[in-house]
Amino acid sequence: MSKHIHILGVCGTFMGGIAAIAKELGFRVSGSDANVYPPMSTQLQELGIELKSGYLPEHLSDEPDLVIVGNAMSRGNPMVEYVLERNIPYTSGPQWLLDNVLNQRWVLAVSGTHGKTTTSSMLAWILEYAKLTPGFLIGGVPQNFQTSARLGNAPFFVIEADEYDTAFFDKRSKFVHYRPHTLLINNLEFDHADIFDSIKDIQRQFHHLIRMVPGNGLILAPDNETYITETLNQGLWTRTEFSRSPQGWQANKINVDGSAFEVIFDGEKQGEVHWSLMGDFNIDNALMAIGAARHAGVPVAVSCEALASFVNTKRRQELLGTPNDIHVYDDFAHHPTAISNTLTALRSHIGNKRLIAVLEPRSNTMKAGIHKDTLAQAFTEADRVFIFKDSSFAWSVDDVCEQITKPASAHSDIDELLRAVSDYAESGDHIVVMSNGGFSGFHTKLLKTLEQLT
């Protein structure tokens, strides 16, 4: 009989990926979550994984051989307490992945504050296009694939390498468990204020990761980015290739919105990318993915071909619909830099048409007000800004709105916000809704409301 694994927090993207890979390896897999909900619940049920709603100790009555504990679980959770009291073997998701998959693979780890999901999806698709059939675990929905995670064929495994902590019993960053042979560091800024006190805390974790890359591996990073340079200067034992560098990877834009560009390496043109994405930050992501794929043996020309058919992950500048010729986008932006990047990319794409930004500050860092002093300037490219304000915020959204140079307003009620946005919108506008959560179904409500405009 196959070993039985039960996963706590199974409907999270990462833990759901663990469940899919464990099932593929032949384990019997079940899981619990506070809310068993689509799309992950649907994906897992289709794989034959038994899902249980809530964290009730009786879910463990058919005692598993191992419990994998998600990092959202904490002491006091009834199932966590039951596992500890009954001495049921337990581990974290990252540790299980290392022990059962990654220690036997060429790991390509994609890290950084922004762009991990998109770059991981690009890299996995390039390797797939090159017929290398990689394994992967991505913290989003890669639309070139049917699933967010799979075992794939040896040796290559692409993983989104998150700096968030591992579990209630292991406060190291998840990515220190991944032992990469190819490491991508997209960028580095202060984030996750709920677990890090300063940028130096984050740099310390990144340097732990850098220490694990073997001498015959490769690190890819942007040139002259202060926090990354400082981190690499703490000690470097691995060959490093830089983007935005005359001696490394560069891009020459063919189209102003970034939908076509030349790929340059070491001063020589390697090929051109013509694709459906836009924005300088996506070009940066692409250069990193192309460089990593080259390390795995994929010619740059093949990577350029692959990116022509790359479909961006869901919730990354995703066009949801065009009711009454009003373009509505869903974007995951939850940090001032990501907000600015998204709006700048859209502005380069739409020209002088009106760009409307709608933000739900939902990440722990945003809700704590860590970025309140830099938030206003992130909206420079927007013509009109709407921000949802939660009563739990310890900072004034109204004050931020006053600092924004374009018309801006704060709204504490979702329905009021919906009316304000729909009353302002008119044919030809582009509205980008930014949140790293569900936003109380605002996107769907907005589409329906705009469809009814006359």
TrEMBL record:
Residues 110-293 form the Mur ligase central domain. GO terms for molecular function: ATP binding; UDP-N-acetylmuramate-L-alanyl-gamma-D-glutamyl-meso-2,6-diaminoheptanedioate ligase activity. Keywords: ATP-binding, Cell cycle, Cell division, Cell shape, Cell wall biogenesis/degradation, Ligase, Magnesium, Nucleotide-binding, Peptidoglycan synthesis. It is an enzyme of class 6 (ligase). Pathway: Cell wall biogenesis; peptidoglycan recycling. ATP binds at residues 112-118. Its EC number is 6.3.2.45. InterPro entries: Mpl, Mur-like_cat_sf, Mur_ligase_C, Mur_ligase_C_dom_sf, Mur_ligase_cen, Mur_ligase_N, MurCDEF_pg_biosynth. Residues 4-97 form the Mur ligase N-terminal catalytic domain. SUPFAM superfamilies: MurCD N-terminal domain, MurD-like peptide ligases, catalytic domain, MurD-like peptide ligases, peptide-binding domain. GO terms for biological process: cell division; cell wall organization; peptidoglycan biosynthetic process; peptidoglycan turnover; regulation of cell shape. The keyword Nucleus does not apply. It holds the Pfam family Mur_ligase. Residues 315-437 form the Mur ligase C-terminal domain. It comes from the Bacteria. Its cofactor is Mg(2+). It catalyses: UDP-N-acetyl-alpha-D-muramate + L-alanyl-gamma-D-glutamyl-meso-2,6-diaminopimelate + ATP = UDP-N-acetyl-alpha-D-muramoyl-L-alanyl-gamma-D-glutamyl-meso-2,6-diaminopimelate + ADP + phosphate + H(+). PANTHER family: UDP-N-ACETYLMURAMATE--L-ALANINE LIGASE-RELATED, UDP-N-ACETYLMURAMATE--L-ALANYL-GAMMA-D-GLUTAMYL-MESO-2,6-DIAMINOHEPTANDIOATE LIGASE. Belongs to the MurCDEF family. Mpl subfamily. Reutilizes the intact tripeptide L-alanyl-gamma-D-glutamyl-meso-diaminopimelate by linking it to UDP-N-acetylmuramate. This is UDP-N-acetylmuramate--L-alanyl-gamma-D-glutamyl-meso-2,6-diaminoheptandioate ligase. It comes from Thalassotalea mangrovi. The gene is mpl.
